[in-house]
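Bug report

Summary: structure tokens for Uroporphyrinogen decarboxylase differ between web form and batch submission.
Environment: batch mode, default settings.
Steps: 1) Submit the sequence below via batch. 2) Compare with the web form result.

Sequence submitted:
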Amino acid sequence: MTAISSPKRRALIDAPLLDAATGKTPRRTPVWFMRQAGRSLPEYRAAREGIPMLDSCFMPELLAEITLQPVRRHDVDAAILFSDIVVPLKAAGLDIDIVPGRGPVLADPIRTAADVDKLPVLEGEVPEVLKGIGIILAELQPHQALIGFAGAPFTLASYLVEGGPSKNHEKTKAMMHAEPQVWHKLMQRLTPTIKTWLASQIDAGIDAMQLFDSWAGFLTERDYREFVLPYSTEILAETPGITEIPRIHFGVGTGELLGAMSEAGSDVMGVDWRVPLDQAAQRIHAASGAKVLQGNLDPAILFAGNDVVREETRRIKTEAAAAIDAGHATGHIFNLGHGVLPNTPAEAITEAVAIIHES
Ligand code: 1CP
């Protein structure tokens, strides 16, 4: 696919996240936090009051405001679009809701080939989201990046097959193994929706993107390679415009999959807190060459006080530097190993960002 530069993309100036993601030396360690927009912020709770989660994702001014809140408060180096992995499916017409305290829930789970045939496909852009991106880009400073995102096909499929959040993903794995042709059909049906969703964000001017395969860590490497990797690879390679911007790929508990996941073709690999960054980099490098690392402070550490945060930050930066020195990585973007936990005090997040920027 020919990369056509979006006229809406800003020329970022001295932007630490973009510099680190493209292998340049940033002026400070870039940091953003997964789930930085959300319940940890009182201004988020006020803005969302009385508005269902999925409704808020289709309200341009509101989604822009919520996206910008953590950037204003914490001085993070990137905003992440306020949305959800199920928004493109909702926009395509699927009967899906986000239940407070639970997550995405589907009225009619997808279990058969006929169900897959009925799954709506996103045909075009989602105008409310594109309008929201325009508002965000107008307010961000030239050193602050906007990260767009999508859920990877496996993680999305898990919600569709299970019907909601799942502890063990047993129905999903059962479909993979007992009815592989139905599984592949589902993957093939989801992939174009994800590509369309990402392509329109890219066209609207996002500066980087993250593909969340949050639950991929539940799979064996063998199953990941057979049932998941081809589709994530297609998205990271063939989404129109995607090679214009840094591509970040992340999953939880993926220590054993880092090599295989890195083969999907991202520029940056997100690492959860379970694997030290230097070891993660060795696994990635061995599989697909040196990439930029993202991570990997344990989100629970934000409850432990600034001295602990400082100590852990130092350790993580040292491990990232060792990986870069060894030629196993080409840069480091600081993040948590997964999302901000909902009860995290907002002040602890602001202070952590300052500590990470300090040294
Ligand atoms: O009422 C509320 O406030 C709902 C909580 C909430 C929020 C704030 C949900 C429901 N989604 C979101 C926003 C969201 N979701 C963002 C943007 C905010 C930010 O990062 O700052 C992003 C990137 C997501 C992506 C997302 N949704 C993922 C991948 C990231 C991850 O955390 O691994 C996943 C797995 C989801 C599904 C989902 N949506 C919501 C919940 C509670 C869940 C998880 C449910 C489960 O445990 O299975």
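Above is the batch result. After comparison, the two runs are identical; trailing whitespace caused the diff. The chain is about 45% helix and 15% strand. The chain has one domain: 16-356.
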